Model the fold of this input.
Amino acid sequence: MVFLLLTSFLTLSNALKFDIHAYSSNNHRYARCIRNFVNKDTLVVVTAIVGGSKGDGMLVNMNIKDTMENEYGKAKDIAGETRMAFTSHADAAFDVCFENTLVSKTALATPYRHVELDIDIGADARDWSALQAAEKLKPVETELRRVEEMVGEIVAEMDYLRTREQKLRDTNESTNERVKWFAWGTMGMLVGLGAWQIVYLRAYFRYVFAIYVESGH
Done:
């Protein structure tokens, strides 16, 4: 069974803590995935802190990909802090998936690993301290730059939602038009079939009546 945790789209940091149990087979059904949406060309930084240690009888792998089948990174046998950064290729949801495989031959007292996951998107993924030092900005100026970038992301998200709503409305109108013509076509076909049946039955009864008359009855 795939455990899929759906998180709503946020421009702020998303922090999750959970335990992932180990299974004897490396089966994707036991993967635990965290999903989030991101706009195209947006910076994303994923930081995972996995408990335990290498060689403790469990093997934890992390994989990041989106619903458009774009692969953003893989990490095998992770323990401690692991960080991955990528820039999205499309307006799509992406999944951060963890798999915990039991490789120990003996039973474990605690067959699971604790995971703490942070997902920073857009403005929150940037290193503002480094930017402030590089451009010699004041703290207020740095904060204004960060807020400005976050507002830009919100505007971009609104534009995306408006475009998507327009596409859905066009699809709905097109579907309604097709349904209307299909209904008219079906009605016309039924009327034509009824008329053909009437003509056929009239001809049939005329034929039967003619045979009846010719037989002398």
